[in-house]
Design goal:
- The protein has helices at residues 20-27, 64-75, 98-105, 122-127, 144-155, 203-221, 223-232, 241-253, and strands at 2-7, 32-37, 50-51, 61-62, 85-95, 109-114, 131-134, 188-189, 192-193.
- The chain is α/β, with parallel strands linked by helices and 254 residues long.
- It folds into 2 domains: 2-167, SPOUT methyltransferase, trefoil knot domain (Alpha/beta knot, 3-Layer(aba) Sandwich), CATH 3.40.1280.10; 173-253, tRNA(m1g37)methyltransferase, domain 2 (Trp Operon Repressor, Chain A, Orthogonal Bundle).
- α3 links the parallel β5 (85-95) and β6.
- α6 crosses α7 and α6 (203-221) runs parallel beside α8.
- The radius of gyration is 23 Å and the shape is elongated.
- The two termini are 44 Å apart.
- Bound molecules: adenine.
- Adenine is lined by residues 89-91, 134-136, 138-140, 143, 146.
- The site of adenine has 11 residues, from β5.
């Protein structure tokens, strides 16, 4: 997958896109990340990329020309064809979720525009038919961190980005519950012990313990998710009648 990123701060992407899983995906050729510095495209003598907003108000607005020129370099002078995806990172946008990430992960090429200051001229968004996407209901100082969050979380759904040991869909959050508690060696650290059940090789008991742990954690921190999960109870299909009754009892108590 090719990912073009339009930004005023290309250095911010160092590390995030060169190390760990994303770095490995780039080396393997699964991800081709192309970072363009918007300032390189400005025709302004002073290298300006923003100006005061029409109608007044605080802050500066990124103007059309450099962003148009950068996009024309990617898509050609005739503009964007229908099936190309261009995203604009913005707190005004649709908040990303699993479905949005899965849909993006099958694209051949996407482009992400990172905004700054008070935003970008609306004509950029409309002419290039951009989708505004947000990473949550809070405001960051620019679109770079949100773009990194988007690329990282989306990449996990691209086949072969994760190793065989990791699986994007096995993450508990995607089944509707929060992830259960994890432990590793030693069993006893300064008297702090690992739950006994995890030590034995009883896979069924471990699975049940993890499910109960996930349910309790979700009830405590994300009641909204638990209420949704209760409708289908994903992950309980293989349980015996007795085990299902036990889960029902726990749910009643919470
Ligand atoms: N830019 C600033 N805040 C943002 C957010 N929450 N999501 C996406 N882009 C942003």
């Amino acid at each position: 997958m090719k990912i073009n990123i339009l930004t005023l701060f290309p250095e911010m992407f160092n590390g995030v896109f060169t190390d760990s899983i994303l770095g490995r995906a780039r080396e393997k050729g699964i991800l081709d990340i192309n970072i363009l510095n918007i300032r390189d495209f400005t025709l302004d003598k002073a290298k300006k990329v923003d100006d005061t907003p029409y109608g007044g108000g605080a802050g500066m607005v990124m103007f059309c020309q450099p962003i148009f020129s950068a996009l024309e370099k990617i898509y050609g002078l005739e503009g964007k064809s229908k099936n190309k995806k261009i995203l604009y990172m913005s707190p005004r946008g649709k908040v990303i979720n699993e479905n949005i990430l899965r849909d993006l992960a099958v694209e051949e090429e996407i482009t992400i525009l990172c905004g700054h200051y008070e935003g970008v001229d609306q004509r950029v968004l409309e002419y290039w038919d951009m989708e505004e996407v947000s990473i949550g209901d809070y405001v960051l100082t620019g679109g770079e961190l949100p773009a990194m969050v988007l690329v990282d979380s989306m990449s996990r759904f691209i086949p072969d980005v994760l190793g065989t040991m990791e699986s994007a869909t096995e993450e508990s959050i995607y089944s509707g519950l929060l992830e259960y508690d994890q432990y590793t060696k030693p069993f006893d650290f300064k008297g702090l012990k690992v739950p006994e059940v995890l030590k034995g090789g009883n896979h069924k008991a471990i699975k049940l313990w993890r499910l109960e742990n996930s349910i309790r954690r979700t009830a405590k921190f994300r009641r909204d998710l638990l209420d949704k999960w209760k409708i289908n109870k994903t992950g309980t299909e293989d349980l015996t009648k007795k085990e299902k009754n036990n889960i029902e009892k726990i749910l009643m108590e919470l």
